[in-house]
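Thread: quick sanity check before group meeting

JM: Hey all, I'm pulling together slides for Thursday and realized we never actually wrote out the predicted structure for the chain we discussed last week. Dropping the sequence here so it's in one place. If anyone has concerns about the input, flag it before I start.
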Amino acid sequence: MKNVILTLILTSASYAQAAPDIDRIHKDVTVMSTIIDGAFKTDKSCDHCNPDIETTYLADQGAVFMIRANNWKLFNPANDGEGFSFFIPQSEPTEIRRIEIKEMVGDILNDVGVVMGEVGSQIELSLANLEDEDLMLHVDSETRRSLRELNRERRELEYQRREYEIELIHADEDEQKRIASSIQGLEQSIVELEARQTALSKTYEVEKREREVAREAKREKAKEKADARFALIEDIVLRSFCDYGGTLKNIPSDEYVSVIFERKNASEQQVVVMEIDDITGCKDPKTLKSDSTSYLF
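JM (edit): ok, ran it. Output follows.
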């Protein structure tokens, strides 16, 4: 019986010694977080990355590092066929910060005969250098403005024609000839306006397709840029663990370090799960990555 009790005491003592020291683990994780943050600040290849880093520890599971890149803003075209919005990281002062064009309402009101001259397109700009985009927006706005002006002129002529037609009913013979001549002149002007509207509408459709192609190119370019930045951020984080992973010495060897890379507005997060032994014995970040469990969630 004494031997059994002694065995239980020794087992309990051994278990107590094996229990993780939360305070020390907290310090280790905080230091590692600081190291990763410093790596971003000193790595010129990822200038202005500056992701937010949050950490936590889950008992019997391991440490969790959340790498949240809040300053990634991808090109995001609007769902409607005309307006579009795109966002460029604030770290790039020579790029357009934000452009929003909402002309779908203008199209709808134009179709039902509402003058858009006073409403126009809403363009919000905060930029340092526009150049090509300025030209594109100018062409778009000028074409629409011309179409709206022609539409307004046509409605005025049609209104004037209706007034003459009403006046014609009550006019004497001499006046009827004058009014009929005026109506004929108005109708000729209306026909000419319709021809100009048709030609300008064709020009606008060509410009519209060109803008759609340009927006698609911007979208692809922005996506490639964001993907490259994500790969670079992941590389810096894994390299930091590989070089300074010994900092996490108080995390039990049977637990893990999970890194969650969160991309703003992305539907999935990249999760990388590494074993403590792989981190402390790391000599190459590529090997650390290949030995880890990586998935999207």
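AS: nice. The longest helix spans residues 173-244. The beta strands are 52-58, 62-69, 75-76, 84-87, 98-102, 122-126, 256-263, 270-275, 293-296.
JM: adding both to the slides.
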